[in-house]
Amino acid sequence: MQRVFMVSAIAAAVIPGLAAFTTPAAAATGPSAGASSNPSAIAQVLLYPGGAQVDRTLRVAAGATQARFACLPAGLERDALQVQAPAGVNLGELKIERVARDSLPECRQRDPRIREVEQQRTAVEAEIAGIDLALGYLKGLSDREARPGAALAASLDTLRRNAQDLTVKKQALKERLGELANDLTAAKAEAPTASPTVSVVTLRLSTAQGAELGLSYRVPGAGWQPQYRARLDTASSALSIERLAQIAQTSGEDWVDVKLKLSTVPPRQTVAAAPIEPWTLAMAQERFAEMAERVSQSRVMRAPKVMPAPAPVADLSTVQITGSAVAPLARFDPSVFEGEFGAEYELPQRVTLRADGAMSTVTLGRIAAEPRLLARVQPKSAEAAYLIAELPRPQGSWPAGPVQLFRDNAMIGETTLQFGTDTTWTLPFGTDERLRVRVEPDKRDGANSGFIGSRREVAVTRQWQVENLRGRPVTLQVLEAAPVPEHEDIRVQAQFTPPVTKAGWRDQPGIQMWELPLAPNQTQRFQAVYKISVPKDAAVSGMP
């Protein structure tokens, strides 16, 4: 049976004052007698909005008296530190220390690109040394074998050609060495700077047999954000939606080949409502007298203010900048998960995520849907038809995020997924060029409005038509915004041809919706006539 111990429960000792990080202090954190010499490994990382929880494991041998977790992030959250131990392992004091990274050999980090360039440089230097050795040998050979005779000319020619080839090769290697020096400078400039300090967690224990310990801790500077890709095949009306996640972290430790989970809910939440307070009613005079008494007492007890001495000006010549730079995209917005119930996504593949803030994208899965395709026209907004895919809201958690739109394998744009309380998801897929929309200018009942008694009346006629040039029928949807009076003295009469399918579309006042099939090569005309009557001298906004 696993047991979980909070740091506070085992009187964790925190030593925050290791500022100098001297060699004796670093040596004090080294393994002692009875300590486990095996390094800990990351078993799993859980990314949530605004941070991550890292689970480490460490194998201790039978008879071990101490477990040591090294190379942990410097800014561990003390209250979130947990230790898991199987039955038969007795846990004692837990201590957290901060030490210099370079003082621990197992914590020193080398960038792979720098290591690769240095290895290439070493190989080139070795080749140059070999050429120098060969040239020295040839020189000594020429000094020993320079005897007069018939073979002297042939020997000298052979030595000359060999020496010439080696000299040319040496020159090429020197040029390559210069290129590698430039590559090394660039690699060091691009390499992320690891945190100069790390945390070391030491745990006293006693166990009669080998066991595996677990250590869990939370770190800031990490998170993920959802992203989606919607692909529509217009020939088959098939729609696939791919879930993606953008992940990044600047926790201070690299996560190399780890098992990764994503959660929509942070582990630290409000566990209870705020304490209830009494509801009191008091007369204004009593409340004023009470406030006046408090002000009077505060004036008596208040001491005269003493202005602090100005802080010394910082010496900018000694400022040092350390740590990894965080890309702007790595600053995730936790608000996209508001209103979403808890959901976790476990990635099937292992992931490597460096602590440099660089963004990575992973796939969370794909769903297939059969949407209802519409050709939507809004004549007041644009003289065009737009292809729309409507489908019921998929099951599960769908946090808000950008959606990349692909139509017949061509990317056409991007929109935002924002469900809220909607049960229907509408995805736009660009203009439908095979539907011709023609909008006629609005017609009024004359150049000026007419006067009827004490009122003013305007008649507006709007007309448009849609022609289907496709070889197959389409479902046409037309949206029109009719005038909506917000005062009883404003009167509106509306007449639509053909009759609207639904008034107040999606509970929006005045939005009229037509939905009807449109056969190939068919043209459908629409007309809306509005008669608006207002008081003669009233200033009415929105009047045509």
Instruction: Estimate percent helicity.
Output: 10-25%
Main beta-sheet annotation:
7 strands, mixed
Q: For the largest beta sheet, what order do the strands appear in spatially?
A: 1-6-9-4-3-13-14
Please tally the β strands and state the result.
30
Shape: extended
Structural class: alpha+beta
Number of helices, where a helix is a run of at least 4 consecutive DSSP H or I residues: 4
Oligomer: single chain
Radius of gyration over C-alpha positions, nearest whole angstrom = 38 Å
| Low-pLDDT segments | 3-30, 299-330, 447-451
* Proportion of residues in extended strands: 35-45%
Query: How widely separated are the two ends?
Result: 77 Å
What's the rounded overall pLDDT mean?
79
Walk me through what this model shows.
- There is one protein chain.
- α2 runs antiparallel to α3.
- The longest helix has 39 residues.
- A 7-stranded mixed β-sheet has the order 1-6-9-4-3-13-14, with no helix packed on it.
- The chain is built from 4 helices and 30 strands.
- It is 18% helix and 40% strand.
- Among the domains are: 134 residues, no CATH class; 79 residues; 100 residues, no CATH class.
- With 544 residues, it is of the alpha+beta class.
- The radius of gyration is 38 Å and the shape is extended.
